[in-house]
Structure prediction request, 546 residues.
Amino acid sequence: MMRRMMLAAATVLGLAANADAQPRPEAQPRPEAQPRPEAQPRVVRWAASGDPNTLDPHSQNVGTVSMVLRQIYDPLIARGQQLQLEPGLALSWTQVEPTRWRFVLRQGVRFHEGEDFTSEDAVFSITRALQPTSNFGIFVDTIERAEAVDRFTVDIVTKAVDPILPNKLASVFMVSKSWSERHNAVRPQNTRQREEMHTVRNTNGTGAFRMTLREPDVRTVLSRNPEWWGWREPGNTGNVTEIQFRPIASDATRVAALLSGEVDFVLDPPIQDLNRLRSSPNTRVLEGPEVRTLFIAMDTFRDELLYSDVRGRNPLRDLRVRQALYHAIDIAAIQRTIMRGQSVPTGTLFPEQVQGFAREEDVRLPFDAARARALLAEAGYPNGFEITLDCSNNRYINDEQICQAIAAMWTRVGVRTRLNAMPLAPFFAKIQRDDTSIYMLGWGVPTLDGLYSFQSLLATRTAAQGDGIWNYGRYSNPQMDALIGRMKTQQGAERQAAMREALRLYREDVPHIPLHHQVIPWALRGNIQMPHMANNEPQFRWVVVN
Prediction:
């Protein structure tokens, strides 16, 4: 049965309609003394602790990369201010057959370097995201092929029924086929091998802003694209003419730059300075829950850990050891002293905004140091053992401080922990080589569907697109794999039951030690108006500089 999905009216998840769908401001009469937004520069100076490690649109599925690329590139399907699905470069999409979706593309759209956007580019972009060097396989895992029906119509054929394909495609950027071919970039950059190619430092999207300067780890400048198709759409009323992005690693320096007026917007203000920023007459703080969960992942695959003094066996394969490490963590102390209340402790894989969340499975093992020591002894480690915890120090809110606290808590119960903290670029490169024994990771859910987390983090790693793509502990459980298989094909109550059972297994088998869901504050100057986004990705097409 044909099902037509016109996102101007509704979304796959049934999320709330965009409250910004009001008559276009340009249609209203303006006083002659009021200049058009383009008449005077409106610059936003944006700072964050880390810099994108690549600008290739399909190489790294990492928030620090996508937050910049989302200003430059467009997907077929966009997300609104409440993360609801909306038309992007596709005006509409229809499930014409159970395994065939048809997308009608916008006409008259151009890439920043002048190429027309057509079905040829859409087919190329989907095919590029399917390549082995892509880190976007989780979004295209069910796709068999993309076909051009005509110049502005594309069919996507899936291997099996995929009810959440539109949600996935909202994360896949469209690129120019001719530009990619011209610059020998028909496949994504291989970041694991630290490959250098044209797309690492150069961009060519269809988005609201185009890159005019790129100095890695220094600054990136984006200029308004006056020909962007979206400026004609309701709701895109931003007046920003230029974005100047600066990575500033030091918390104190970022705050000082905001208070002095050197920068206008800080994506990740240190939580210990929030009250100071709130009380300043020239700054304010926006905050809300992020769709991101922090957890500890463990190598349960190797016979012997790379970074431990235990020889001939892997202690993390023993459920009692995993439970001991879990019991040793005082999550309330971390929330109180390190996060200063800006976190939601959890015992599950993803937050309640995500389809599949089951409150009855959101239960933590209690903090109990004595129980932790007893479990270690039962497992054959009465004197504990040594291990190295890998952690980023500029990716998540207070990430290094969280890891320092956990290392101390584990050491107190006998697991003598060495902390190996590093910036996000070498951290991701390290874990993506499976060069780790235990590590902390934060996981966002851009599809707002639990399958994304289960498949990426817990499926046995296989050659199949997306399965275990971020499972660097290489956890493998046939029961979990079977439940993930059901999630891929079932719908309705059956699919929800599979997710609930998988969350129960996650709680009992302890493949991870869940920590908390992030609450994300943004800090900005008083003259900046912008919506807070639960995916922690600012959208400057909606930003107004007064």
